[in-house]
């Protein structure tokens, strides 16, 4: 996750005080775990990485098994659990699991489509003490309902936002941008403010599940750049006005260098200090600071790697699976620097971005260590000779790899 607002708050403090603020180094800990507790979902969204549908899936972890895993996660110093699905609210024991997570002092988030949250459910979410609830909105009503393949989905999700806000629950909107909904971004940002939503999570499309099947509809680089500039401007305005809003992005770590470029063009005197902060962040953290456990107990480097299992928590504890680098993918993800090739290898921002998302590289080329074809920075921006773009991995629709596409 790339925290735009955090860096811009630091920049603002630096401009005001004349010195970049000291930032506390977090204590070493286990990874943030995104936990798909159930695969069933009442929706069948176009970009769902889990390929979920509205039926039960056999073999999901029982409550007792979830408890055992949770104990191991706590001992391994996992700080954050994001309870996800499918639609996690379809799991009958979801609140019991969340209550236990809270009692064990995990920061506990809920990732939901929001359509099942009525007043009673909102009361329960508030009483459980979820630290954060992320609700997906892929555009305004017409766009969202089409994406979510359910008439009325937008109204229900927006009603959920209101119900939760009214109960003081911290809420974020989650937006995954493609060529089909990019036009709604400004209006969604306006809606966020109108509804006094705390956080906006902008997700780039990653190529997993139905997101991979529909990758031909990914936004073009020019639209992505425009969207990022809009977010930067919005986040900066928010900082200037002293608002508590948070703007974050995910699934494209080139956002780090792009923010650096945006800041350098306006406050060149602070570019080096920001660069150092971004190098400390280090870009993509799949397999390092982000982990995923799916509904069957399989462990993955992140939610986009369901086609690659590192082991199952029924057979080995998560802590043992996570620290085992005998899997070549895990060894590469944990290597520093990662063994990424192509234009990433020669990129001057590699230390910031870390070579970006490995899933897109793997889905497009078959090689997890190829360059990320989703990088929207041009040759000049990454310090390569003009024209090197001709050799880069091209985006190809689902079913075709770049090598077959030329
Ligand atoms: S070229 Fe690669 S390393 Fe450089 S910014 Fe783009 S994705 Fe990141």
TrEMBL record:
SMART domains per the UniProt record, alphabetical: Elp3 (SM00729)
Cofactor(s) required for function per UniProt: [4Fe-4S] cluster
Gene Ontology molecular functions: 4 iron, 4 sulfur cluster binding; catalytic activity; metal ion binding
CDD domains per UniProt: Radical_SAM, SPASM_MftC-like
UniProt keyword annotations, A-Z: 4Fe-4S, Iron, Iron-sulfur, Metal-binding, S-adenosyl-L-methionine
Domain Radical SAM core: 27-238
PROSITE patterns: RADICAL_SAM
SUPFAM superfamilies noted in UniProt: Radical SAM enzymes
Tree of life domain: Bacteria
Pfam families assigned: Radical_SAM
One example of a Gene Ontology biological process annotation: heme biosynthetic process
Function description: Involved in heme d1 biosynthesis. Radical SAM enzyme that catalyzes the removal of two propionate side chains from the intermediate 12,18-didecarboxysiroheme (DDSH) and may introduce the keto functions on rings A and B, yielding the heme d1 precursor dihydro-heme d1.
Stored PANTHER family: PQQA PEPTIDE CYCLASE, RADICAL SAM DOMAIN PROTEIN
Family assignment from sequence similarity: Belongs to the radical SAM superfamily.
Protein name in the entry: Pre-heme d1 synthase
């Amino acid at each position: 996750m790339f925290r735009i607002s955090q860096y811009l708050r630091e920049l603002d403090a630096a401009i005001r005080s004349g010195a970049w603020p000291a930032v506390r180094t977090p204590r070493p800990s286990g990874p943030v775990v995104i936990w798909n507790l159930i695969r069933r979902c009442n929706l069948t969204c176009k970009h769902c990485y889990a390929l979920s549908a509205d039926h039960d899936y056999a073999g999901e972890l029982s409550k007792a098994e979830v408890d055992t895993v949770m104990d191991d996660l706590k001992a391994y110093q996992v700080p954050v659990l994001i309870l996800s699905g499918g639609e996690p609210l379809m799991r009958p024991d979801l609140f019991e699991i969340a209550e236990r997570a809270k009692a064990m002092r995990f920061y506990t988030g809920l990732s939901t489509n929001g359509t099942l949250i009525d007043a009673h459910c909102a009361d329960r979410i508030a009483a459980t003490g979820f630290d954060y609830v992320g609700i997906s909105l892929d555009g305004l009503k017409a766009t969202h309902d089409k994406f979510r393949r359910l008439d009325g989905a937008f109204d229900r999700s927006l009603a959920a936002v209101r119900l939760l806000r009214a109960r003081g629950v911290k809420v974020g909107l989650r937006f995954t941008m493609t060529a089909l909904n990019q036009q709604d971004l400004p209006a969604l940002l306006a809606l966020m403010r109108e509804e006094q939503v705390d956080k906006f999570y902008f997700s780039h499309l990653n190529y997993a599940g139905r997101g991979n099947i529909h990758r031909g509809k990914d936004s073009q680089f020019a639209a992505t750049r425009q969207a990022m500039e809009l977010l930067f401007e919005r986040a900066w305005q928010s900082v200037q006005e002293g608002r508590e809003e948070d703007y974050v992005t995910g699934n494209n770590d080139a956002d780090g260098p792009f923010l650096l470029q945006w800041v350098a063009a306006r406050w060149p005197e602070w570019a080096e200090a920001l660069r150092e902060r971004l190098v400390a962040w280090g870009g993509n953290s799949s397999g390092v600071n982000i982990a995923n456990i799916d509904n069957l107990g399989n462990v993955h480097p992140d939610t986009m790697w369901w086609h690659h299992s590192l082991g199952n928590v029924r057979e080995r504890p998560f802590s043992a699976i996570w620290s085992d680098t005998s899997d070549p993918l895990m060894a590469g993800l944990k290597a520093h620097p990662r063994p990424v090739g192509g234009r990433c290898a020669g990129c001057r921002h590699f230390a910031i971005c870390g070579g970006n998302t490995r899933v897109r590289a793997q889905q497009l080329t078959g090689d997890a260590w190829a360059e990320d074809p989703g990088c929207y920075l041009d040759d000049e921006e990454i310090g390569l000779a003009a024209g090197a773009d001709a050799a880069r991995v091209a985006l190809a629709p689902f079913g075709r790899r770049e090598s077959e596409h030329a």
